[in-house]
Amino acid sequence: MAEDKTIKGLGAPPKAHDGSAFRIAIVHARWNDDVIKALVQGAVDKLKALGVKDENIVIKTVPGSYELPFACKKLIEGGKAQAAKAEPSLISTTNLLSLVDDERSATPVGDKAKTATREFDAVIAIGVLIKGSTMHFEYICDATTHGLMRVQLDTGTPVVFGVLTALTDDQALERAGIGRKGTKGHNHGEDWGLAAVELAAEAAQWGQGNI
């Protein structure tokens, strides 16, 4: 059986990026659950390999791919709200007397800063759409694609398009690395994890004028 060259994944970026400072959200649909689980695991494994900490990987689920744009937007907004609430608490909860009294046991400000909640640096939207016998596939593909693009442009937070739009079950399975026809294929979730860290790193630099 000839190898499908379109399954091969994304190559390494021009430079390596350290994901240890980033907070990444994964939002996934539940339709075609076996494929979804493999893709999510692939994304998580790659994020961890790039240094993203367990506590900075947030996974949420929605019923289907059509709901992904709404969920991504709300998560991005929620992350910004969390960060805004956490920031003043670093000052208000500090015991000022501890700055001059070594015998006080107040938690150092630096340690509190490490546990402060930050906004999401990128979001990965994962879904699996497989063509059926009606026009439903085309409508959902189009709406989801445009919706996710709009979210990242409106919020300024990178949203990785992790939605498989397959014509058959086997196409989806092979792009999740769990193919059943002589080749396992390649897990594109790994590519999405890589893209999320790269975009988070580059967007942070570009936003500071480092171009």
UniProtKB/TrEMBL annotation:
Give GO terms for biological process: riboflavin biosynthetic process
State the pathway, as annotated in the record: Cofactor biosynthesis; riboflavin biosynthesis; riboflavin from 2-hydroxy-3-oxobutyl phosphate and 5-amino-6-(D-ribitylamino)uracil: step 1/2
Q: Which reaction does it catalyse?
A: (2S)-2-hydroxy-3-oxobutyl phosphate + 5-amino-6-(D-ribitylamino)uracil = 6,7-dimethyl-8-(1-D-ribityl)lumazine + phosphate + 2 H2O + H(+)
Enzyme Commission code(s) on record:
2.5.1.78
Tell whether Transferase is among the UniProt keywords. yes
Say if the entry is tagged with keyword Transferase. Answer: yes
Give the SUPFAM superfamilies listed for this entry. Answer: Lumazine synthase
Keywords, in A-Z order: Riboflavin biosynthesis, Transferase
Chain's role: Catalyzes the formation of 6,7-dimethyl-8-ribityllumazine by condensation of 5-amino-6-(D-ribitylamino)uracil with 3,4-dihydroxy-2-butanone 4-phosphate. This is the penultimate step in the biosynthesis of riboflavin.
The family line of this record is: Belongs to the DMRL synthase family.
Name-wise, this protein is: 6,7-dimethyl-8-ribityllumazine synthase
Q: Which organism is it from?
A: Cutaneotrichosporon cavernicola
Species classification = Eukaryota, Fungi, Dikarya, Basidiomycota, Agaricomycotina
Gene that this polypeptide is encoded by: RIB4
